[in-house]
Amino acid sequence: MSTLSPLPKIGTPSRAWRSRADAWEFLGYAIKQLVLDLHSSSDSGLHSQISRTFALLDAVEPYWAEPGVAAVAQLRQLVDDGDPHAALELLGGLAHLPLASGAEQGSVSGGLQESSEDEVAQAEQADRPRFEVLVVDNITAQEAESLKNNMAAQRRPSDAFTYEINVVPSYEDALVAVLLNPDIQAVILRPGFSVRSSQQLGSDLRRFLAGHTPEGLQALRPVKRILGLAEEISGLRPELDVYLVAGVSIESLAGSLTRKFRRIFRRQDHLDLHLSLLSGVAERYEAPFFTALLDYSRRPASVFHALPISRGGSVGNSPWIRDMADFYGTNLLLAETSATSGGLDSLLDPHGSIKQAQDLAARAFGAQRTYFVTNGTSTANKIVHQSLLAPGDVVLVDRNCHKSHHYAFVLAGARVSYLDAYPLDKYAFYGAVPLASLKRRLLEYRRAGRLHEVKMVTLTNCTFDGIVYDVERVMEECLAIKPDLVFLWDEAWFAFARSHPIYRRRTGMVSAAALEASFSNPAYAARYAEQEAALHDPVTGEPLDDEAWLNRRLIPNPAKARIRIYATQSTHKTLTSLRQGSMIHVYDQDFMASNQESFREAYMTHTSTSPNYQILASLDIGRRQVELEGFGLVQKQSDLAVSVAQAVARHPLLKKYFRVLTSRDLIEPQYRETSAAMPLREGLAELEDAWQRDEFVIDPSRLTLDISRTGIDGDTFRHSYLMDDHGIQVNKTSRNTVLFMTNIGTSRSSVAYLIEVLVKLAEGFENPHPSSRPRTVPVLSAVSSNVSSVVSSVPGGSAVVGQTPPLPDFSTFAARFRVDEACEDGDIRAAYFESYKPESTAYLSADELARAVRAGQEVISAGFVTPYPPGFPILVPGQVITRQTLEFMAALDTREIHGFDHERGYRVFVDRSAVSEDDISESAVAAAGIGRLPAAS
Question: Which of 78, 378, 429, 764 has its CA 20 to 30 A from that of 758?
């Protein structure tokens, strides 16, 4: 007698990791309840909930090998037959159940079964990493079972890994499987697969598949269909090994297909296929430097060189610092060494395990070459800039990039042309640099006859606040104006993007490869020829006016454009690495001819001769994780952020005091073709649409929380309410926002805790206790003791305490540091070192400086002034200080401001001939010459 209601139909979702885990965990709970309630007539809706759970599992389990559809069918039959005891026993024996309550997989035990031989065998394999293999072929269930048995027969006790096989019948099912199942590490294509899925797929998944399933696919020859599917799989998950098993003469296929497949096999080659599956995963599992350091730490050694701490020598026998060994453990001390032999390697001249680790990282991130950096992306940026820029070269750069870039320009002697990002005044931070601004600046240099001086474009992608550029389009249009530009993409916060099929397309390395492919396409050259005719005068051959170039989407001359792209990544920020672990990725066609030697010298200049081996080993092991589980981890990272946003939007008390800012808040309408406020919340298809069409998009794992309605300023909210009261760590705030970021280490429990804390805070705001912390009208900035006087003393000033003044654009370099009035670049190195001259600078308080500006004086900054976070300078050496800059600085609530002396104020250039040394603090403001430097000789 059936106890379950008719099975409802549920479409397969486009993201299933969480709903699948929840379903299996609920099923275990529900079946236990059935056992307990076996003699009770009450139902309380449990059977209908179980029916819905089975419907969900029917929708997703076809794309997993284990537990799989057979287990779901057996469980349903037992429950339907009214035998929950047998169902619970079966459920308890299932391996690799996804558990909603934790990251580990396990089984649901009812305590009813005893150990069996199979369980013992499973326990023996438990320490071996496990993965799944997807076979794509339209075969019967019996044929599928035979295939699985044949492959299982090839297993040996010495195998480093274990795997299970899942068979899907169609092109669409194959794409769904690689999208949903992060456990898949290899795909085997066989010619018999069909095109369409017979599963009921959700509407979002159907929309997504429509963009990845070409029309007329059914009519193509099998080889074409196979190639098309292989390309789509590699596009979605390039880390996967793809194999072809053919039933025809494979010799005739090998020459034309080997680039698409790791290997080609005959159907009978089960052992070779088995060994290849293990070998492919082993190559990604390899971590050569980590392994070398591990081996070194296990060997006995005597140290007659540096590092008394090596092998724990100075720690282990000390009665005073043994707690260091207790805290860090002996492995850390055993691995501390300055040796570069014995299996180890030199970071400055790698030929062994470090070289191998860097080569593997280049493969993982799609680079031509990769370099490890052990003191952060700040140093990585300096290395790249110093290798490419010489004194007098012009670099176009977002003024709001990290301070390391600005210091790099000082070191390199480059002339800096600052670009302004669009401001988000309401939230007191900047967006990104519009493409139109980049093109306009390049055209200004062309018009001034100085385009040949422009060497490089440097942009931050994504920004601290999660705004992401259309990298390929930016480079494409800029190269159309100057075909030999070099690009540096600061991806300090975007290293994880490589592991997501949609985010990946907006990274520097993937965009470089896409441009390279486009430039080799004859159709692209034809498009360029058409554009060339449209943008040049047919008689004179001269370029048309700038507006014609600005109003057209440009493409470069594929015969002349050079692909020279660098990306710096803070691996430690978004992937697994110890702090300061970073990488430089290079995709430069001219590297060997133009930059190899200068890069080596720059690397030598900035890299320590005593690099931290623990950091290097963590970069190596972090790369392994990217290739083997990055896809699943990044998928969870983004989905968890969406969960927080949805909770804030739905909870009646949370939405009263908080609001998560969306694309509509952070990206101005002219930069968006799509309309979804949070595309990932709508689904994968909506996300892909926005990331394909919009000039800027938002990283879904960044949540900017508007706290305006709490009456608390961002800095106080961060330090007092979140960290001090609840142990929640965030990094960046603005006057009225707090930035939350999920990462690959974020758990569902931590997300639940964050939501719980926000609810508690909202309850406190709603019903404040008499002893509770008072709400703050935003506190006065340490930059000025009298904000209102600073603001009101400036003509036209309208800001008051509690309001955020407009964000200042970069003003200008003082005339003495510029080449001409036509272009915006300035000699930041000259300004920086001008301040080294005796008596060339003085300190002015914010009030004194405001009076000088009010008096019409040109006051020039003598140094960098950098609030941290976010870490970009408000003032740079040689910049003219304006009223807007002072207003913004006065309203800052950031505690840490590099380059600003809280006691003495701002350091500025002075003309000592106009002011006596004794009178500088009082008279400098009124003196006509303050801030004016003598004309350059």
Answer: 429
